[in-house]
Predict the 3D structure of the following.
Amino acid sequence: MSEQLRRDICALGRLGVLASEVEKSKVESCLLPAVQYACCYWVTHLKGARIGLRDGDRLHTFLRKHFLHWLEALSLIGKTSEAVLAITSLESVVIVSEPAADLADSN
């Protein structure tokens, strides 16, 4: 997905276009079936592999760069409701690290 997802993936050229206004053939040519599958199910596979999300790791980097692109792709393929469920699932794999102790508090 990192290689495929990008802003305005279907080159619509304007903001605010409704997914229903985009020709299905256009979406299918811009988002190949393998990419559509990956967009829909990568979080499920991630959870199944028991991989956590930590600050600065590859998953965190992917989300920082492609989170909105991923949501755009899901919208274009008519899977926005799945995005909400996926985000909830992602929250469950976040590994929170302890904040570094403040030096002023240690004195």
Summary: The mean pLDDT is 89. The helical segments are 24-30, 33-48, 58-76, 80-93. Residues 58-76 form the longest helix (19 residues). DSSP finds four helices and no strands in the chain.
